[in-house]
């Protein structure tokens, strides 16, 4: 079979389309023929350097995938053969107290499909049977396959950060940075679906215009202001937001605190802008504000996100869809930071008929 095999660390040249042996499933695994895989920033970060403990080369990336089950392991029932499944990339033992408590990322056996084990940038991939959710999508429905592939990591993370850790309620105001990212776009859709008022942060006039097309979203262009916190306070009548979802980290965390109301919450879900920060502590204790760690998203979070999209309660924002052979171009799009929404690569069976389509 063919796979985009990473053999070192560095630029795009370390990942090449290569013939490799097809995978053999363990007893509790199934073999999935990849139909669509959505890109994440981690795909690029771990191509450049081994940022995740346990990740090594040679390696096949790709965390978010949907595909057809074409084979099953010896200990796995054949019920899934021929089914289209969406794959949860979080792999754990499924039996320990941490797994049973719905915190699989804390399990000692924790792995990630596409990071510490091979992922979906290949014609075939093995995944545990318990990581598969059957979805009602036709094998040739390219648009639906691409949209479902965009759900897992962004959808489950946004669901956990906003509704689980953040306890976002209808009528509350939430600030969501990075509205053009897959994670930010998913968060906006989920927040709106639950009746929240959304203030989105972007960088650049083009992204501000794109984010503002939904009349329910108020948008602040961080590149056009010296103080986005003051803009939030102005939009909320000086009160501040009920919740700021910080999937940025770095110095943004201290700013996020100042953008919340007295007794407000900040959920920390990521550190793309830095692992360290400085806080003005009176902003925290004198105003009764809280900083909440995002924690592990659960299978229940994943199931809720998938069900919410599948039922049409909220949509998935796609930037572009690419043929399998053009994965390097899709990655370049991700690295350019000009995208808005998720970038998806379709499986090889669609390569001759699919062309890039940017979100307009």
Automatic annotation (TrEMBL):
In what residue span(s) does the Enoyl reductase (ER) domain sit?
Answer: 10-345
Keywords for the protein's UniProt record, in alphabetical order: NADP, Oxidoreductase
Instruction: Tell me which domain of life the UniProt entry assigns to the organism this sequence originates from.
Output: Bacteria
Q: Has keyword Lyase?
A: no
Database matches in PANTHER family: QUINONE OXIDOREDUCTASE PIG3, QUINONE OXIDOREDUCTASE PIG3-RELATED
| Name of this protein | Zinc-binding dehydrogenase
Query: Which species is listed as the source?
Result: Herbiconiux gentiana
């Amino acid at each position: 079979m063919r796979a985009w095999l990473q053999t070192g660390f560095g630029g795009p040249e370390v990942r090449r389309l290569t013939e490799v042996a097809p995978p053999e499933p363990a007893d509790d695994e199934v073999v999935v023929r990849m139909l669509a895989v959505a890109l994440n920033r981690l795909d690029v970060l771990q191509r450049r350097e081994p940022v995740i403990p346990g990740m090594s080369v040679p390696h096949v990336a790709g965390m978010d995938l949907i595909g057809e089950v074409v084979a099953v392991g010896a200990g796995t029932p054949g019920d899934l053969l021929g089914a289209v499944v969406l794959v949860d990339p979080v792999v754990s033992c499924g039996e320990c107290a941490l797994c049973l408590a719905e915190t699989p990322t804390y399990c000692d056996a924790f792995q990630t499909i596409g990071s510490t084990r091979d992922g979906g940038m290949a014609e075939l991939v093995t995944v545990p049977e318990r990581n598969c959710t059957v979805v009602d999508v036709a094998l040739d429905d390219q648009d639906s396959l691409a949209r479902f592939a965009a759900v897992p990591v962004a959808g489950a993370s946004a669901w956990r950060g906003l509704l689980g850790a953040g306890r976002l309620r209808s009528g509350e105001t939430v600030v969501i940075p990075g509205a053009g990212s897959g994670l930010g776009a998913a968060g906006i859709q989920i927040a709106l679906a639950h009746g929240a008022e959304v203030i989105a942060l972007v960088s650049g006039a083009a992204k501000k215009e794109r984010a503002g097309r939904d009349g329910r979203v108020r948008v602040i262009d961080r590149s056009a202001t010296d103080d986005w916190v003051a803009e939030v306070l102005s939009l909320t009548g000086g009160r501040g937001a009920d919740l700021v979802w910080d999937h940025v980290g770095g110095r943004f965390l201290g700013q996020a605190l100042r953008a919340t109301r007295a007794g407000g919450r900040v959920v920390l879900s990521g550190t793309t802008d830095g692992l360290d920060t400085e806080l003005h502590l009176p902003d925290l204790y004198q105003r009764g504000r809280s900083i909440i760690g995002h924690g592990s998203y659960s299978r229940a979070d994943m199931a809720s996100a998938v069900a919410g999209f599948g039922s049409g309660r909220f949509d998935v924002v796609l930037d572009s869809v690419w043929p399998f052979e053009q994965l390097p171009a899709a990655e370049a799009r991700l690295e350019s930071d000009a995208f808005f929404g998720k970038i998806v690569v379709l499986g090889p069976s669609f390569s001759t008929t699919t062309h890039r389509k940017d979100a307009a």
